[in-house]
Structure to design on (128 residues):
């Protein structure tokens, strides 16, 4: 399957112009850090920066809750600090799930663009 895929890629690159081939090469699979950095690009990048700042604040609050949890002996305060810690962990988790969804969306868009280029290249090759 790998050879067949590479052959198709080679056929597509031969039919594309130089600019289109460069664009096609940019659509390759990204590593994890490239995917994370890609979420900051675009219209919603500013929102993601704010969400990451809020996530860091929630982490600081979580650490504070842990310290206070172990420094108290009153049951009511134990429950309150545990609830605060649980809330902050849930908040961080929700932000991370949102970011993973964005990374997945970007992967899907990249693959759709690759398919679109492949269809255009094959259509151009078949019409010649």
């Amino acid at each position: 399957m790998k050879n067949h895929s590479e052959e198709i890629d080679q056929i597509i690159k031969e039919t594309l112009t130089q600019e289109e081939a460069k664009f096609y090469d940019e659509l390759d699979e990204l590593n994890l850090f490239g995917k994370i950095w890609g979420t900051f690009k675009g219209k919603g990048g500013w929102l993601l920066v704010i969400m990451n700042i809020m996530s860091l604040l929630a982490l600081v609050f979580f650490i504070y809750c842990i310290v206070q949890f172990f420094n108290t002996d009153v049951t009511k305060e134990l429950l309150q600090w545990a609830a605060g810690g649980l809330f902050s962990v849930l908040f961080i988790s929700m932000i991370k799930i949102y970011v993973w969804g964005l990374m997945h969306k970007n992967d899907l868009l990249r693959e759709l663009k690759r398919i679109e280029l492949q269809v255009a290249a094959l259509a151009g090759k078949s019409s010649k």
Remarks:
- Helices lie at 2-15, 18-26, 32-39, 45-70, 75-127.
- Residues 75-127 form the longest helix (53 residues).
- The chain has one domain: 2-127.
